[in-house]
Amino acid sequence: MVKAVIGDETQLKLFEDRLTRSVVPSQVGLVIGKLSSKLDRGFVYDLVPTPPNDAGEAPCSIIDGAGESNKNKKKTSVKAKSEPESSALFIDKDWVSEHARQVSRMLLGGMKVVGIYIWVNESLFKNSTIAICQTVKGVAEAASLMIDWSEALLIHIGYSPLRWTCRNCSLAANITSSSLRPCDFKMGKVLGSLQTFRCTYNFDLRLPISHDDKLDIKRFSDVLRSEITVHAKELSGAKALINGKLVTEDEQCASDDFHEVEFLVPFLQDKYLAFDQIGVLGVLLFRGFVCSLAYLNSKEPVSQALLDIKEDIIRSLQSRLEIMCDEAERYIESVAEIGQETSSDIPSDQPVPHFDLQAQRKQCSLSFPRRVFVPWLEGTYICDYIQSSETMEVLKDHCTELMSIEVPTDTSEILEPESEASAVITTTTKSFWDIAIDNSLASSPVNSVSKNGKIGNGKPAKSVTFKPTLSILVLIIAVIVGLVFYVTGR
């Protein structure tokens, strides 16, 4: 359990100044940092306020004894009037958790959403402990894609007087006020001491799609999600080269600020069960590369950087798949809304984006969103994902809304290491789900089926049929045999 927390003094003092100059009586947001179990210490890089919800309402507000929200009252200075003892804090924990889920996609290795912060006076904090703890737990569940957390941070910034307090929240099944334990908190140099590790990870995976009526996993997204999970276990056992040298896990970091990492993934035998030709409908080809960055504190061992990079690679693949699934859900909702308004104009056989791979009969090549890196704090980066149909304006909107930062006007500062990948091999510029829908409607003979899931510069798997070749070979043999009999007969 983390016993001490160090926050980056430069960033937190800037954030404190913005809060004290504001007139908001309460605010909630995310804590971006890292919890190191090996050091029993936590690091806080920055605090990110949760934006208003879709209705324009703040994610937290003060409710008095009669249940009236402070947003309906006349606005006054937070220091000019104290809140009544019966007042409590209302937090839209679902919205804060959704914010944490989306921000987690933008963070690189060694950086996570490690908790929440609350800007409110001491009496309101005490009256709202349960609601705050439930929000912490919801954020932890939303932000943890791969690892189940056992603890998270709660930073309370109180006013009158201004004071920072950090608590460790144990994420038990039944969370109560006793789940909070105080931990030491101080400010110092954190971001400036980070070291950067970069890895360009190539992969080439093939999944046979079997003809099995009892198979539970059928949809494209389900098959890929399962394969990414399997590949995560394979990657966890990979050895690593740092700056061209094989390293041991207990090594300390070198003095250099930047390090190149390569992974040596072992060959696996008998990974898939044998399939006969009749039982296989096609192959899902999943290939490409992921550019990964991770940040390590100078006191942590190299093994932690390798774990962070491996987690970042898998988390990046999962995030891209989630983005496509989110797009599919929006598509379904839009079709449903249009169907309610003008049902007569919508065909009854409108396809669903989550197409069934067992029903797929045409070769297709599908592209994951590409990763771009945006400058963040003191030489560090965050990332976002751009689909082929999107522009950089989407990137700017995401960074402003989710991270409260402005994207540099100079586009040369935005890194696009995955932009050199070849374009999707298709005759259309439609989005991922449009391509999936078009291909799911087409059909062809079973023996020429080939599916392709693509990231980066991979080429689609080609369907092959041996019937024409075999016929020509038989014809040639027949001609030769005929000539032999003709010559010997003479």
TrEMBL record:
<dbReference type="GO" id="GO:0008104">
    <property type="term" value="P:intracellular protein localization"/>
</dbReference>
<protein>
    <submittedName>
        <fullName>Protein odr-4 homolog</fullName>
    </submittedName>
</protein>
<keyword id="KW-0812">Transmembrane</keyword>
<dbReference type="Pfam" id="PF14778">
    <property type="entry name" value="ODR4-like"/>
</dbReference>
<keyword id="KW-0472">Membrane</keyword>
<feature type="transmembrane region" description="Helical">
    <location>
        <begin position="470"/>
        <end position="488"/>
    </location>
</feature>
<dbReference type="InterPro" id="IPR029454">
    <property type="entry name" value="ODR-4-like"/>
</dbReference>
<dbReference type="GO" id="GO:0012505">
    <property type="term" value="C:endomembrane system"/>
</dbReference>
<keyword id="KW-1133">Transmembrane helix</keyword>
<dbReference type="GO" id="GO:0016020">
    <property type="term" value="C:membrane"/>
</dbReference>
<comment type="similarity">
    <text>Belongs to the ODR-4 family.</text>
</comment>
